[in-house]
Amino acid sequence: MKTLIIVAHPKLVESGTQQFLKTSLANMSEVTWHVLAPKKTHFDVSNEQALLKAHDRIVFQFPLYWYSAPAILKQWEDEVLTRNFVYGTQQALAKKELGVVVSTGDPQRDFKAGSSEQFTLSELLRPYQALANKAQMTYLPPFTIFQFAYLSETEKQQLVVNYQQYITNTDFESFHGRELWFEQQLKQKIKVNPDLQKLPQILTAIQDNRENLEELGWTLSMIKDDEDE
Amino acid sequence: MKTLIIVAHPKLVESGTQQFLKTSLANMSEVTWHVLAPKKTHFDVSNEQALLKAHDRIVFQFPLYWYSAPAILKQWEDEVLTRNFVYGTQQALAKKELGVVVSTGDPQRDFKAGSSEQFTLSELLRPYQALANKAQMTYLPPFTIFQFAYLSETEKQQLVVNYQQYITNTDFESFHGRELWFEQQLKQKIKVNPDLQKLPQILTAIQDNRENLEELGWTLSMIKDDEDE
User: What is the arithmetic mean of pLDDT over A66-87?
Assistant: First the structure.
């Protein structure tokens, strides 16, 4: 799976969050980090469309400005996502995935009815969900980063792994999918550097775990069958 | 009441809808038609903020592009609506109103769950509602124009009146408010041109009507009081 990350941030270099996310993806293959340059007057439509075609998962990544993406992403949408390309004769994005990585300085608890922001991010990001719907894309659950500056080291480490999965894991939503992804990551790390003595043991442990879990799953479903009879 | 209409349309001159709306407001006082010029690189922030301060009702007017305003309005928001101006020390927009006039080439029936666009315009326009909330503004029900090109002459005449009220009527949502607005409009027309022989008669008829309606309202409320006892 190839992932295109479309980064829209007017102050990219000064953004701790964006630099952190970029670093998280070092050594990740099949990932394209595509920055929308705010100085441009117009986008090269055919270039941008070719880039979209060449990837399977498209991710809009931005800080929340007035409950939406910075203007540069909207400009990109208005210019690049032509009618024919999206839902006319070409339907070039059909069967691809659309993800949204959004960061905000406000805490998660503010985004609900009755709280200071009144709406959830799921509600505020509906225009992207509607776009995915129109383009016949699968809309992924938005990846949200609240108050990055206040995250602990442990939370940041967790963020790295969750973000990596959002970008590269075909099935990041199921436990099974996340486990398989960890196995693949470990295998690759061992391949690149066999000196990492402990990794093969961890990998075996995870695989054993998974087999045990699958057995338990079978047992549970048999018990359930008995109950249903 | 002073109304500021912020018009965001990349092809304003070619837009039949926008030209129609502009013409609808000819002779309307206390209305500022403010076009966001797409060629500008940056907005004059203090100019724009002064303009906002000088008006009571702020209206974003645009065609729906990818379920949101064209990029130029987002750029304006990102640059002009600074934190301090909106919700920091100044709260300069508090107690003002925010309206949205949005046009789309798709029919109204497409904007609901299960239909082709999946979401209502109320849902898609949440980011503006959230902005109003943050700025302590009153959010007006969005004024929607579906498939302008297919409207009949009668529908267009109705649109003129409804739009004029959305822009200039302090109370366009109640029947009473709309009636008062008609009275004012007629009075003004008679004042400007007393030769319009029939208008004073229409005005009297409307006023009589209103008095009758008020009487009926009293009678109804008395009947209800009797029932409640």
Answer: 96
- Chain A residues within an 8 Å CB radius of B78: 10, 65-66, 70-71
Q: Is the pLDDT of residue B198 over 80?
A: no
The residue that leads in pLDDT, B21 or A221, is B21
8 A C-beta contact, residue B12 and residue B22: no
For the stretch A141-170, pLDDT in tens is 999 999 999 999 999 999 999 999 999 999
CB pair distance less than 8 Å for B126 and A67: yes
Q: Which of B62, B68, B98 to mutate to test the interface with A (most CBs of A within 10 A)?
A: B68
A49–chain B nearest CA distance, Å: 16
Burial of A60 (0-12, 13-18, 19+ CB in 10 A): buried
Average pLDDT over residues B9-18: 94
Is the separation of the CB atoms in B64 and B103 below 8 Å?
yes
What distance in Å separates the CA atoms of residue A50 and residue B202, rounded to the nearest whole number?
A: 63
pLDDT single digits (tens) A200-217: 787 788 788 878 877 887
Q: Which residue has the tokens 């508090």?
A: B94
A32 has which bridge partners? A4
Chain B environment of A10 (Cβ under 8 Å): 78
A75 → closest Cβ in B71, B129, B130: B71
Count chain A–chain B contacts defined by CB atoms under 8 A. 83
- Please write the tens of the pLDDT for every residue from B102-137: 999 999 999 999 999 999 999 999 999 999 999 999
What is the average pLDDT value for chain A, to the nearest integer? 92
Residue from the list A118, A119, A130 with its beta carbon closest to the beta carbon of B118: A130
Write the DSSP string, B96-117: -EEEEEEEESS-GGGSSTTSTT
Calculate how close chain A gets to B128, using CA atoms only, in Å.
Answer: 8
Task: Name which of A65, A74, A129 is nearest B68 (Cβ-Cβ).
Answer: A74
Task: Return the H-helix or E-strand segment holding A152.
Answer: none
